[in-house]
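Side project, low priority. Logging it here so it doesn't get lost.
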Amino acid sequence: MAMSPKPTMEQMKDFLQAGITMMESDATREILRQCPRLPGRRLIELQRAGWDPLGIDQDVGCQALDEITPSGETYRDVLQLKETFVFLAMRTYLRSLEDRRPAKLEQKRALPRETLMEFFDACNTKLELPETAAFLLEKFQATKERDKRGQFIANMQRDLLEVLGYERDHGCRMLERVQQDFPDDKELQMRMRGWFQKAQGTMMMLEQKVIAAQMQEEMESNPEMAKAREQVAEMTPKEQGELIERMGKKVSVLQGLPVEARREHLSKLMDEDRLEYLKAQILAFSVMQQQAQRLQGGQQSC
């Protein structure tokens, strides 16, 4: 049997444009609303079927799209369409869950495995959307106490439990029982870890942006920051690690303070102690960047 040819650039553009049109249609919305289970899986089936009229094997076509990298102008139009396609798919999936929201919330039954999988997918999808990132960043910037910022992500997750028909407090209690209720289900355990890591990675990325803005402000207003950067660049990895270990907790506490309170505290330190703090702050930010990048996953088209 001959292998299916890879799609041309024009065929990829045709597939993506047809998929966008399909996802925007009322007919697709109704199909997803009425499908008995797993609207996300049904949406993927509808997307992949777009390769059939083009004579391209579905797996070959999707792999070709996933292999595209942003290099020069060659694939610019395809990449732009792909981004529109991906984000529209996320919004279409989440809308389908809202369309199927039960009128009455479950407060006693355990979450079935299928619902848990749907919940993890929905949470991860929600956090991928640019409008979610913009909303959370605004909330993080307006919330001075760092320990309260994570609650915005938790509240989104709890909202999605109710979209799936489970009262939020009851749903949270059931989530705490996953390892007990499904001790041998490796796939479910892996999906739960991925859900946790996605939330943790998003939290780190947002913290990184907040701290980056703070550091930029301090760079412009605090001449000692430039000196601290120079000294960090001259430190060995061992010296950097020792400084983070020694000062990490203090940096975390001070970064959680309002800007004016942090400045007031720093102004009372001896010059040497203040410089140590600034160096530790720079290193802590670098570590946070690395951790967030490891926890962030990529996107697939279909």
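Brief comment: The CA atoms of residues 40 and 93 lie 6 Å apart.
Revisit when time allows.
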